[in-house]
Amino acid sequence: MSESTTNDPAAGESHARDQGEPDSQKWLSGVVSLIGLWLAASPFVYGPAQSMLWNNLLVGGAIFLLAGYNYYRIITAHPTSTGVMSLVALLALWMVVSHFAIGGQVAIGGLEVASAGLAWSNIVSGLIAAALSAYIAYAAGRGVPRGTAAGTR
After folding, report:
1. Where do the SPW repeat-containing integral membrane domain residues begin and end (predicted)?
2. Which pLDDT value is given to residue 106?
């Protein structure tokens, strides 16, 4: 991560200025956002799964919006938000286990709880999104903290 120190004549102090995030974090945030969009849309692709419908819509939508927000921050020259990406990683892990937590019964009121395709989609997509989000948060957290001179921690 490239950073430089600049003197602020108004404050009389030296501040670390971020020169931008690596392109990999930008594109990985975009990929995670698209995974969130897929998670929100997947109940409609795999058929009726009433118990998982709202879970996928809410959590997938949140992943889409939060990762999209981080992508927007990066393309507008703001630093990656480690808190946002950590929350995305936790939401993605919820998607991995939600099928087992919510879909314990085979059928509720004659409706299938979740199809096997939806369950595997949630598990695989959640694992990928969690791994990518955790990596983005980790990589962003390794930078020099704001307010310290470059080369010191």
Report:
1. 27-134
2. 44
